[in-house]
Amino acid sequence: MAYRADYYAGLINTLILIFVNIAIWKAIYGEDGSYDGVQLKIVLTYIVLGFLMQSFFIMDDYFIQNKITNGLISTDLLKPISFRLLVFSYSIGASGFKIIMNLVPAIIISLLFFEFLPPFSVSMFILFILSLCLGYLVLYCLNFIVWLTAFWFYQTFSLVTIKDALIAVLSGALIPLWFMPTWLYNFIKLTPFDSIYYIPITIYLGQTPSNEIMTCLLKQVLWIVLLTVIGHFIWKAATKKLVVQGG
Amino acid sequence: MEQIKAYKKIELLKILFVFFKMNLKSMLEYKFDRFFIALAIFVREMVSIVVMFLILTRFVTIGGWTMHEMFFLYSFLFLSYSIFVFFFTGIRDFDDMVYQGTLDRYLIRPLGLMFQVVAARVDFAAILGHGTVGILLFTYSCKAVGIVWDFKSVTYYISALIGGAIIQAALFMISSCFSFWTIRTVNLRNLIFFNCRRFAGYPISFYPGLVQKLLIFVVPFAFVSYFPAQYFIRKPDLDMFWNGYLYLTPLVGAAMFVLVYIFWRAGLKRYSSAGN
Question: Which of A20, B77, B175, B194 could form an S-S bond across to B189 if both were Cys, CB 3.0 to 4.6 Å?
């Protein structure tokens, strides 16, 4: 627990974000608690779930960049283990740590203090977990492509920040996508963004009709495959391009 | 021993200008990179605005507040923050100066320490990023909320912005002062500052009473955005609070600044270098 302050900071941050957003959505709905037939409780659950997911979907965006700038990547590439596997296991490990240390306490506190609907049904909950894992993979593949730009730019702060902003708005992490204008909603449906947060959460809430769930999951898998292929080609180009500074 | 002659005001201004030019040059050295950092900060800050925009296009009002009014309130946060960064980047990065030992270099120069800390750094990327969002929001909303620009309101507006900037500078300074006692508070400070800022982006009347009190008396962000905005738009939820709060922003800023300055002097006396 060398970084105890950081740990508490992450946890408190998640809780405050949930708290602020609940206050805002309660103000939007006002007294009667229903708007356009969508119950406040459903929206609140959506928002809480979105922030809980974000608390462990955050990945170390500068892992590859740091490897490149300090030159360690040259020894990593020589090791008899795929570098991409290394990055992937690192991300999974970090998320696993966050699930145990951040998510579990956050869930307990959310259950105690925030209004939080249980999953629609047991089978939906299982599908939700499956979809959640797929969502994580979609986000990882997308991130990986952005991280690889470090091979060309060395400093990726700008690109990473812009990527985070796009994901925050378009993935439905901060606002349920059904509240968006139709044209924007239809556009997002064509992108990988809704696979990250929106699809898992709507499955949890039982908002997705059961005959469409398979299509949704398939869509997530398709995006994973497509983004992996793109990532593969960029990776090939990147390793050819690699210039390690210093001797 | 010969007393070192105090600098004249005009000389100080000249030094300030030299520092400023130095910062500008070091930024232009990597103008492409810095431009993209500014752009990234702009996009990052726009996220909350876009989300607010999307919510309000759907629901029209939140707790009686329209989009123009919300954006007007929000513009105070961005404008005062960019003013704060413009003048006090050094205060924002003060922790770093202590830990990297830059402060020791300042201490042996024949110039006021606070002056050097304030003058030494200017973060243009943050100013551009936050400032653009603020100006965008302000120009979009100021007509619609119906402000009559006369001498009184312009004076109020400017003093509210400066007061807000000083409040934020003081908050940063308090946390930085702890580094004199070698207590590292950057994480805690970022947590408190940026989360309270998040609260203050919406009218504080949305929140439970405890949070309102916190934002008025402990981390006085209510004086950065809510009360200045309410001075101009006067939404009915102002009845929850004492009317005098509307005029207190510059006073709160001044009081906090004095307090922080005393704290800073105490810390400086106690300071022994990070050393190695």
Answer: B175
